Amino acid sequence: MKDHYLILAGVGLATLIMAWLPSVSKKIKVSSPILLLLIGFLLFYIDIPLRWPDPLWNDLSLMYFSEMIVIISLMGAGLKIGTEYSFKTWKRPLLLVFVTMPLCMLSAYLLGNHFLLLSVPSSLLLAAVLAPTDPVLAAETQLDDPKREKKFKERVRFSLTAEAGLNDGMAFPFTYLALLVAQAGGWAMFDFSDWFLDKFLLKIIIGVILGIAIGRLIGFLLDRLHRWSSIKTFDGFLALSLTIFSYGLTELLHGYGFLAVFFAGLSLRYYEKISGDYKKKMHDFVHEIERLLLVVWIILFGGSLMNGMLELTDWKGILFAFTFVLVIRPLAGLIGIAGIKESFKSKLAISFLGIKGIGSVFYLSWAFVQFDGFENRNELHSITAYIILISIIFHGLTAPSIIGYFKKDKFGNDVVEEEESGVSEDSEK
């Protein structure tokens, strides 16, 4: 029983500290994931008897846990984005998804195959798992108050929020590509048309359509049901229920659940007849659940690093990790949004803050659960861990200052967030 109480006390202390970490992070200009990682190191060092990864995680458990965190974060990302952003503004995240992401994947594949000397399927998998920018660890670089953009259009934060919401789903076809090539034994026996028509086109289309439809349906029910029958709800946990339902249903109907969750949140956010305060309540609820799960994930991640995860690759893997985070992603980002009329500082910030994290872990564990014939499993785990660690440190030390710079108005003054008015978006307009 002593171990049981030690675990409760250790995890409880970490989650208790997390309640103040966002405020502490703003004051010291260091992202909270860095501080959580240090807490994870400490709990491992004092030997809190958790089931620490030794050093690898169990692929199935890791897949389910990371899956839940990512879909909750994607719902939060969808609920953050309001109607103030035109298609012209949406061009930034769309270019990041359709230009920057393929450039990053191509670079990772070529380096994986020719520099790291990984097999073709393993190189493809490495490229796919590094494609998404993380909606969880990058929460501090994203939009925070869904009403805030009415006062100040935060293009940098909007671009990073929308990119994370979109490309976490768009990475799935390429993880499937790696899986199918591995199962076929190479490119020669690989059925490209089946992958393109089914895993790329069909599943993406189904995911987007179902997400929009579910979000609109829930919005309609929230708006009309209480008028017809006096049945209403103001519970924030509706957002969590919507997250799980839209993800599970879309996966059952052969679509990409990640895309469905993001578009369900986005569609609900765009449903103008729902009070803005209730939308914010739903966003805040899933955000708090996300932060709670993030505490546990980073603590275990820190334990895996202390327990030998980083020793499973050589200097080439370490060099690749630094190069990908600090060179490839920023350059690919700048190329992707080169034609956008925006200041170079804004473009550089958007390109540099391509934070990697839990989404990459999900795709890696998913592929290993689906097929146990991938070569270089330990090395892929270690390289991914290095990239997440480097991203946490470098982005964690720089992101608060970068975002703080873009939260100032043209006179250099901090933009103060609006007080909650308690009125619906319709009356605001």
Automatic annotation (TrEMBL):
Predominant place of localization: membrane
Organism superkingdom: Bacteria
Organism (species): Salegentibacter flavus
CC annotations in GO: plasma membrane
Phylogenetic lineage: Bacteria, Pseudomonadati, Bacteroidota, Flavobacteriia, Flavobacteriales
Residues annotated as domain Cation/H+ exchanger transmembrane: 15-400
GO biological process: proton transmembrane transport
Pfam family, one: Na_H_Exchanger
UniProt entry keywords in alphabetical sequence: Antiport, Cell membrane, Ion transport, Membrane, Transmembrane, Transmembrane helix, Transport
Keyword set includes Acetylation: no
A molecular-function term among this protein's GO annotations: antiporter activity
TM helices/strands, residue ranges: 6-22, 34-52, 64-82, 94-112, 164-188, 200-221, 233-249, 292-312, 318-340, 352-371, 383-406
Gene3D superfamilies in alphabetical order: 1.20.1530.20
Membrane topology: Multi-pass membrane protein
Location of the protein in the cell: Cell membrane
Name of this chain's protein: NhaP-type Na+/H+ or K+/H+ antiporter
